[in-house]
Hints:
By secondary structure, the protein is mainly alpha-helical. It is built from 11 helices and 3 strands; from the N terminus they run H-H-H-H-H-H-H-H-H-H-E-E-E-H. Among the domains are: about 70-155, no CATH class; about 160-215, Structural Genomics Hypothetical 15.5 Kd Protein In mrcA-pckA Intergenic Region, Chain A (Roll), CATH 3.10.290.
Amino acid sequence: xxxxxxxxxxxxxxxxxxxxxxxxxxxxxxxxxxxxxxxxxxxxxxxxxxxxxxxxxxxxxxxxxxxxxxxxxxxxxxxxxxxxxxxxxxxxxxxxxxxxxxxxxxxxxxxxxxxxxxxxxxxxxxxxxxxxxxxxxxxxxxxxxxxxxxxxxxxxxxxxxxxxxxxxxxxxxxxxxxxxxxxxxxxxxxxxxxxxxxxxxxxxxxxxxxxxxxxxxxxxxxxxxxxxxxxxxxxxxxx
Length: 239
């Protein structure tokens, strides 16, 4: 009797896909091994998470809304030349700092004078401005904060203070000395020209102890010139 090739025996079909047959197959063993490996790796690395460093994405400077404004452009160029700034970003950075301080002062002025928030945060803001030398002690009021200018903050930069103390020949020379680590504030060498100097630290600005300008080891150019001078003197003695 001829058998139909497309005929499937129900018992044979059930036997082929029975749980016992599936377990014995190589595909099932390979599949089970991969699943176990995946879950083991997943739960293993879940307990070994790398520590995340929190970063602050606050704005450092704000670009002017009107890019071509003659009065503002002239003012920025004047500030750059007077205080020896590198670019306009340094001006915009100070402007944003001043804007944030004014904003905080305006918000506190809307509260009542006896309000606890105004008393606490207002005194903290005024003490900080007095500490860095922007305000004087006889002007410790929020109304005077609104009258601050950009020049008041630029005057407190380390670069400006080094020039005014006579440690540098010019405002640009002061920046070079700071960047080359010749200047210290108290015992700490500071190489940031925009460092804000506090009133109590102003009298402690001086040359670094290991600086060649303070009697330390001579610099590269001075050593080279001295070497050339000694070499020339030795040749003259031989002649």
